[in-house]
Fold each of these.
Amino acid sequence: MRLSAFFGQTLRQAPSESDSASSQMLVRAGYIRQLAAGLYSYLPLAHRALRKIEQILREEMDAIGGQEMCMPVVHPATLWQQSGRWYEIGPEMARLQDRRGRDLVLAMTHEEVVTELCRTEVRSYRQLPQMVYHMQTKFRDEPRARGGLIRVREFVMKDSYSLDLDADGLHRQYIAHYNAYHRIGARVGLDLVAVQSDPGMMGGKVAHEFMYITPIGEDALALCEETGYASNLEVAEFQKTPDDNGPPQPLERVHTPGQSTIAKVAAWCGVSTRQTAKMVFYTGEFGPDEPSRLIAAVVRGDMEVNELQLRYAVKAQTLRVAESEEILSSGCVPGYASPRDIDRNRALVVADDLVSCSSNLVMGANEKDYHYTGANYGRDFEADLVRPIALAYDGAPDILGGRPLNIVRGVEVGNIFQLGTRYSASMGATYTDENGEDQPIVMGSYGIGVGRTLACVAEQYSDEYGMDLPISVAPFHVILISLGRTGEVRQTADALYHDLLNAGVEVLYDDRTASPGVKFADADLRGIPLRCTVSTRSLSRGGVEFGRRRTRQWEIVPAAQAVARIQEAIQACFDDLAQRLVDLPTWETRSGRP
């Protein structure tokens, strides 16, 4: 491809809406352009890179028995109503109607459609197991699109679906995907970490996310290198040991003027923050036919509330932080709230299990500038529910060996779910077993975001000049730069360009009339790993200048040997990536909990 005829321009400065390194680089390099919040056009460079990622996904899915197909983006709402998700998912689902007034859904994912296909295509146990996949557009009306391609509203996802006779068959296909996802990460140049995760709207009981560790990640992860424990912070477990605060002391109401924070109250009362308790208020929504309710969560003062576990504890569909007026209506005073004097008709009190076994706590007295000391669970206050609702924290002892957890950030590149019969049972997708009895098909779901994968690769392989993408993802293998418009330089560059094309090399030829500085700057931005330059200077030194962008070390190669040298370098780049496939994490070698 000649740059003189190429669609898409580089930019010297990233637009103001670019809020991550990957977003800035992809925009500046002419890969993507934002149409609206969370909506992007993929220019030719990005399109080529995305197709390469898709091909890697395709090869790895085929290798574990996948069959590629394609399912629609627009779904009849009746399918989502049958599964129940029509009623469970909020405004992130795009709902619409056709001209006849029938409800439709823009695909967020395709479990319902696969299950519908099972009802028509699977009859007998002899047809199972199966695994199908496709690469298709999804739409989720994200409330806060960010990070360029990290969190968008419209995106392409590879989603595969396993269909099995029983849980053992599902487990085998789950393991196959777990291992394949690590291979996919290695082939695109990313070291992915598999962590336990919450199944969320997908359903099922077992799920893992494949995370790219980066400070820009939206997800918090709890990792322990010593024991191998790895979990999304939302579902992370940790050991809890109550502090020995001595035998129960009398409950006393003390004056704490202006001491409205945990740190200030603890210092005023002469205790550590570990000997305090705090209440955090939420309003829970339980469904269209049920009233909302105030939820009062009690955790130790040095900890935070795990909102996901709290939502599960009270069986709420959603939680939001309560307003001051809602808190006051329960008889509590914001900043000085206490479970001791709360109106139980207006609020549901949930205490963390560590609070219930800690003694002599300091907590609010439901009056401005006053707190209780010596508060003990069972004698001075009680909860409606006691559950593990405290969030794991940096340094917390992990559940496996008591070693400290490390809290880091990450971007979810892919996820895998053991759905079980979540969809087949509700939608009537069955097979006939050996005894002639109908059994629900046991399902798994497995996704990877194609654009998000590109964003993570761009994030990792960026420097002050631009991108240096792995050769497996880069839109071209080599960029050929001509620094002459006529004469021997142009003739040599043209001839080399045609020779490279004939040799099957993916080459982008910068034949523009721009200055050398512009050409080199653009080459750095675009992320193509190999560079070959033809100039008067290089010819005077015996050939063309060639090297890897990453090392920025250039050698002179005779023009007649340039194609062979470039092919050799391309293979070396692929060999470097292949080393990542050695000693990859697998299900069988993982440490820690599944």
Amino acid sequence: MKNIRYILGFMAVACLLFACEDYMEPKVDTPYGDEFAYTLPGPVEGFLTNAYGAIPGQIDRYGGDFLDAATGDAVTNQFGAGVFALGAGKMSSVSNPIGIWDAAYTSFQWIHLFQEKSADTATVKWWISDAVNDSLERNRLMGESYFLRAYWGMELLRVYGGVAESGDVLGYPIITEFVKEEEKDEVLNWTRNTYEECVEQILVDCDSAISILPLAYSGSSVILGNAHIGRATASAAYVLKSRVATFAASPANNGGVDVQAKWERAALLSQEAIDRVNISYMPLSYTDVTTPTLATTPKDYIFRRYHNNNSLENRNLPPAFWGNARTNPSQNLVDAFPMANGYPITDPASGYDPQDPFVNRDPRLRNTVIYNNEVIENGGRGLEASDIIAEYIVLEADTTEVDDGTGNMVEVIEVISDTIIYRKGLDSQGYDYRCSRTGYYLRKWISDKVAMLTNVNQKLNAEHMYPIIRGAEAIYNLMEASNEAAGPMGIVPGCSLSAYDLIKHTRSESLGLGSTDPYLDSQSGGANEMRAMIQNERRLEFAFENHRYFDMRRWMLPLSETVRGMKVTQDEDGIYTYEGTDPSKSDEFIEVEERLFDADRYYYHPLPYGEMAKNKNLINNKGW
């Protein structure tokens, strides 16, 4: 009976559409009438399902691209893509590849409609003859609605939160009730709440979710069991609190007001998440990012989506493996990975060799990037160099005798005609015009199944996880907040570890350093040095998880670094030569793509033009 209910729910939800002219005005079309539909648990729960459904289902969520391709970490090979335009500085209030205003406010409407109808306990029954289960399921779904409102609020905040020309730090117009058709004109009078008011609303919603939801779903319970894995949990709400507090304390958003207190709040909420969810750091393994399954979902994936197809591989595998090489990691990102001894490649103690650039590197590099001579398929084929040069081939020759200068006649071979053959490798533009522009391909999230794609109709699928919220985020947030509030070695009151303790542990686990980390020790004298280390470690840990773009902006880091690549050739003796891999020789850098973020406005995003035109009370971010 339970399954039938869900089927009916999805059928009814499919009929609930928002009018094109005004997304605040829901339309219900069922053969039974609105009031009857609102008494059925399926249609009512379906409102909530729509708020889930608006969350992108795959990690390359920006039109098939990663947001990292609009930073110095990567480029996209699709020149007509929205992320390519974003990376070129072509964002506008009319065309914003990361705009989510409509999706968020439409989701708010679904959420509030669910809350309104679900609250009527006399009309909507999830369990007609079981009051205990009816209350349990109603509460769980209500908890999910609070979390989803917090989630969409956070999405609005990180995309549209910013500083106005007045210097005020603003968020989004907060809405906590369903807007009826007769109330829609009120939308035209909305104003943006302050950034801090939005933070407080998100924290309140997370606390409401935490008070009702389980930390995780497990067992065979039809209400709180494994069947609900992937839905909102208290664990996800705890980590979301850590995220919003960290954003609020960051330089781009704190407004210079109560900065110490905001960093302390971020530290305490991050510690709370770690303690309540029992989060412990373990680096993502190779199989975690290439071949996860529903049965082996990493504990770290606190809130995630799931898909079973080959679209990631189709977009991102090299052309030699029948992919489209869409995402090209950069030399900038590769350079950011330290050596296995923990030293950056720019340090003489690292042992880095630009002509053998991938030996003894941080293991996370191989989990993230496909580089030259690296196996792509599990036990299968690998990449070859970009340009493999074969020795010249003699086409015609003749033997003659010549005087060697001492009166002796010696035989020599006179070459009449020859040619030099350049055999293009699987990683070269000569092999396929779609090959990587940077010399690198994406490894993270890509299945390593053999013959994943082929030139015939038969293609394989693979299970993929999109971790929207990872437990590790709370650890890195605590690391960052502790350094800002108490310095590298200080411990914020109420917390258990210092920034130094945390980063030493994560680097030890990631690099296998054990109890000693000389480079970290050399950078622990001040908050500035430690901040740079934390920012780089976060860059590596969350590469291609769509964090870097927003992190750079909240930190107010320079945005105009040119994206670089590398080139590799192989001579007739099989020796590789690398170009662009020596960070000390800027005159030899291979420049791939400029980042034209040359104005302060690029740290914030414009509100949608349509909303600004309709509502004169909305104040835009500065520069827009």
Amino acid sequence: MMNGYNMDCFKHTMKCIGAIGLMGALALLSACQEKENSEVMNDNVFLISEYSTPHGTFPFDKLKLSDYLPAVKEGIRLHDAEIDAIVKNPEAPTFENTIVALERSGSLLSRVQYIFYNLLEAETCAEMDSLSEEISPLETEHSNNVSLNADLFKRVKAVYEQKDALELTPEQNMLLVKTYESFEKNGANLSDEGKEKFRELSKRLSLLTLKYGQNVLNATNAYKLNVKDSSDLAGLPSAVVEAAAKKAKDSQMEGWVFDLTYPSYAPFMKYAQKRELREQLYMAYNTKAASGEFDNRQVVKDIVNTRLELSKLMGSNDYAERVLRYRMAENKENVYHLLNELLEAYKPTAMKEMEEVQAYAKAHGADFDIMPWDWSFYSEKLRDEKYSINDELLRPYFELENVKRGVFGLATKLYGLTFQKNDSIPVYHEEVEAFDVFDKDGSFLAVLYTDFHPRDGKRGGAWMTEFLCQHVDEKGVNVRPHISIVMNFTRPTDSLPSLLTFDELTTFIHEFGHSIHGMVANSHYESLAGTNVYRDFVELPSQMLENWAFEKEYLDGFAVHYKTGEPIPAELIEKIRRAANFNIGYATLRQLSFGLLDMGWHTITEPFEGDVKAFESKAWSAAQTLPTVEEALMSTQFNHIFSGGYSAGYYSYKWAEVLDADAFFVFEKNGIFDQETATRFRKEVLERGGSEHPMVLYKRFRGEEPSILPLLRRHGIRK
């Protein structure tokens, strides 16, 4: 369709046909279109060379949906020109004129991608989803044009083959190796026919993963449990009921509304006494995107089969074999060894926990076998009975504003970082806050955006990302990063502030751990900075930071009652510590089941055309404890592995948990706020990003390779 300017130009041109002829009129129309395109580009926020915002932050307040596509196309055009200049450089290939030049190319395209894909996750809409389906193939084609450029690869390979004689620093050597491997794993060594096949498959996979994520979000948003009878709210805490009333009001519905976002779903499953309603909500949650308009079952098949076909094209037997070459685990045998070792260690404990919850339920009137929709309900009651602790007892001490102060304060105590809210920094949604982050010497370190509450345009879960990654530019300036953490925490209501559960507190700390990794980054090259590390190493800083949530010395600093200001009682902290391992066997097997399911899908060696549910049931059966529900399906909503970055990598959470327990042991031994230990962890792990192999960095901090024993001891599995 034409906009108003174009239509006026068209009408004027039609009037001119009689005077200047058809060809002249068409030329005039073309000139009008060029003028309009020029005006559109001049008004495009991405094409501003420098932003006048604090720290050059992105001016979200000037962003228009119409900016994205033209900016992507212009970014691709400019990147093509940069690649062409590298290829046609008459000088012999060197590390600087080829590897570094390639690393620094494509800055405009990267800027657009950072903004577009981050907002696609945090603030999407139908128009954004539609744009993604148009932009993604363009970017995939461009990426393939780069990685399959034979002349470019020839230069990269020439530098790579002389790497031992170049006297590179460890970071330079890592950049060279990763650059070469990137070409290698993206088809550069394929035949011409193979390269064309690679293009076709990668473009198909890009669209499939987009479709998968859109279906999950749409299916999540489509469901609402509308409760109209107050008796159906029995057992629910008043804060949960009030939040549900607000949801109903916002949705212009009567009564109370519960949906599939975590702050709504989780407390309902823990506290709602009406079993049939728990079952109803459970089934809605666990059949997301498993049927109907947003059915992902065929999408799952298409994704795994496309990944398999790509892997075989690249000479691997399966997808896991292809990707694990570039991770700490190295191969699927090592992954399965870890999963099975943990399964053997934790399963006896998990089965005892299952029996204990079942016995408790029967003793309290349950004349049925515990089903998945009963587990949280009876587990929470048993936990409260054993330890006199529950979410509602703790919530008053974890008011969001106080928690922010406490979480930020953790970075202050460990690394000397300070945070100052900056309302002058534009944000992408009114609920988002932006902070200037300063280092211990007072110098500017980073920008941090925080986005805490669920909305229709935001996918579920919690994550850290960045709008600008740290690097040293061609002028030698250390460009500081712009980091974002996005969560889905309990909203405030008309009478209550946002009061977090303990799980939400640890989630905040977890994502903040990722953000510290990004904020203190100190690499020369963007592709090696911050969280740009091996997938099975990236969770170490985040999971290790969670340990502080159980420490009295830390909680005493911010956990106060939101009404009275009284600090959290020492006995309550002790109960948190004592209850930390409650149902740890069940929780571990749940994570292991996800790892097994991921590996199951990504170790197939023949195209899959069977039943998704049957495959799922078999793949994770060894880690299941509760009865199987025929209709429930995880594979159709498993964003981590089908539209995120954890395909053949979900084991990373347990891999990193072994590392985090081993690393935190050093803090426990030396003091949880010991400055020497914290400084060593920052300098040897956090600041270094992916500049060296992660085991080299870890051993430099720890002094030895990690052991599984600290994790088993922490969980009470071993003495």
